[in-house]
Design a protein that fits this description.
Layout: H1 3-16, E1 21-26, H2 34-42, H3 56-60, H4 62-65, E2 71-78, E3 91-92, H5 101-119, E4 125-128, H6 136-142, E5 147-148, E6 154-155, E7 163-170, H7 189-193, E8 199-201, E9 204-205, H8 211-217, E10 233-235, H9 239-242, H10 262-265, H11 269-274, H12 277-283, H13 293-307
Parallel strand pairs: 3-10
Antiparallel strand pairs: 1-2, 2-7, 4-7, 5-6, 8-9
Helix pairs in contact: 1-5
Length: 309
């Protein structure tokens, strides 16, 4: 089977698994990103996420991460919810509505990897979904799936930005896709609409100012300057996506694992106040929300209450 046929079959199978996009890029040193990533780290925009500074060379070059790497297969999976929380409830970012995306995407990637091996028995490689030093948005853009917006997220034309990304870095050569010649143009709604002004400039996010960082990754107290901007956001923040014009094309996902439970949708302020750790473990079992831990969620709830006094 020739390279073109294998490439076509991989995409067809990826779509059959529920992925919304699939593209291929040559695995090579991402030289154009080196100064951008280095500058972002030197300015401390990664806040306390020190792991983002680890394995710098591997982060920039997938051939150092995966021996014999020839291609990066990028996929995207829609997570825009079918049902949303009542606006009166403390708000949780859409990506965390259902089961932990790491497990869902990795399971589909494993199925895709197993299928590719039937086409190319000598296939070797590794699968990733926000689980290793991989420039996911860069490679997705390089593979022609979408383009990186001023909010630093990957935007898929005609579909929006509510997507999880995943990669298979493999030892086989494929028919590589062409990056899209599209941009945000003069639009800067994400920068203007961010209540904490977390975007130092277009494409540059200062994590320390980001509500998502403060309510999820930050393990200490929420920055006192951020608390007045939380409004009713308990875990994460979708503002820069909600106001993005490209997301008028967003459609609800059809992934059963991303469907929120009735208990989740009924989480009022009162229920969250009464929630104990066993309740937390039960409601958020297999959820990405467990990254913030029970203590973190309670911290966030107390911060929200302070904004209403």
């Amino acid at each position: 089977m020739n390279r073109k046929t294998i490439s076509e079959n991989i995409k067809e199978y990826a779509f059959s698994l529920g992925f919304d996009a699939c593209g291929f890029a040559k695995a090579e040193d991402a030289k154009t990103e080196k100064e951008h990533v280095k500058s972002w780290l030197e300015k401390g925009y990664h806040a306390e996420m020190h792991y983002l500074a680890n394995y710098f060379d591997k982060r920039l070059d997938p051939t150092l991460l995966v021996e014999g790497a020839q291609s990066v297969i990028s996929v995207a999976l829609n997570y825009y919810p079918q049902q949303k929380q009542p606006q009166t409830n403390p708000q949780i970012a859409y990506y965390a509505y259902g089961k932990d995306y790491h497990n869902v995407v990795k399971n589909k990637l494993q199925q895709l990897f197993d299928y590719i091996k039937t086409l190319h028995p000598l296939l070797e490689g590794r699968m990733f979904c926000d689980t290793a030093p991989v420039l996911e948005r860069y490679w997705a853009a390089k593979a022609g799936i979408g383009f990186i917006g001023k909010n630093s997220l990957l935007i898929i034309p005609g579909k929006g930005s509510y997507f999880f990304l995943g990669e298979i870095i493999s030892n086989i050569e494929l028919e590589y896709d062409t990056p899209l010649n599209i941009s945000c143009g003069s639009c800067n709604k994400c920068q203007q609409g961010c209540p904490t002004q977390a975007f130092e400039q277009a494409y540059i996010l200062n994590s320390q100012k980001c509500i998502s960082y403060q309510t999820i990754e930050n393990k200490g107290d929420i920055d006192i300057s951020i608390i007045p901007c939380l409004d009713n956001r308990l875990y994460g923040c979708d503002i820069c996506q909600q106001i993005c014009p490209w997301n008028r094309f967003a459609t609800p996902n059809n992934i059963d694992e991303f469907e929120p439970s009735p208990d989740f949708l009924s989480l009022t302020t009162e229920k969250l106040e009464l929630m104990d750790e066993p309740d937390y473990q039960q409601i958020f079992k297999h959820s990405a929300i467990k990254r913030a831990k029970f203590s973190g969620l309670k911290r966030n709830l107390n911060a929200i209450k302070n904004t209403k006094r």
